[in-house]
Amino acid sequence: MLALVGELLLLRARPQDLPYSRGLLAALLGASILTQGGMLWSLGAPSALTAAGASAVLVRFGLVRGVLFALGRAPRFVKTMSALLLADLAFRLLASPLPLLAGEADPGSAALPAWAALALGLWLLVVQGHVFAHACEVRLPAGVLIALAIEVSAALLAVVAVVVVMG
Predict the structure, then answer these.
(1) Running DSSP on this structure, what letter comes out for residue 71?
(2) What is the pLDDT of residues 65-96, one digit of tens each?
């Protein structure tokens, strides 16, 4: 499975290459929620922001399902969402040391971890676009636009949901 994740991150594997497993999807969803919330919490984020980060994973889950359903590709959901969550978790793991580097850096080199985080975030968007390009049978630029629209929508909807729930 690790080799497949590496191939996915290098745009060599497709979501179709993953096994169809609802159990894997559930495990990846749980891990993603825990790591997203845990990462924000460990950085000292307010509880509302931590809740928004964790709920963004669930909102993204629903948005991906909705997009695939609207495009007539609903049967591809399990593999597509599994690929997206695997990529997200892999990039979160790759980015995990960056806050530590930023905290220890002197003011002259503090920008390096920020640039590294930006580069990882952009590459994650390309990987997500690659997944959507295969799942929706569109070209990579259209897949990247779908991924960007889902990410922005998920972030906004998660914040709104937390504001409504927390008052």
Answers:
(1) T
(2) 999 999 999 999 999 999 999 999 999 888 87
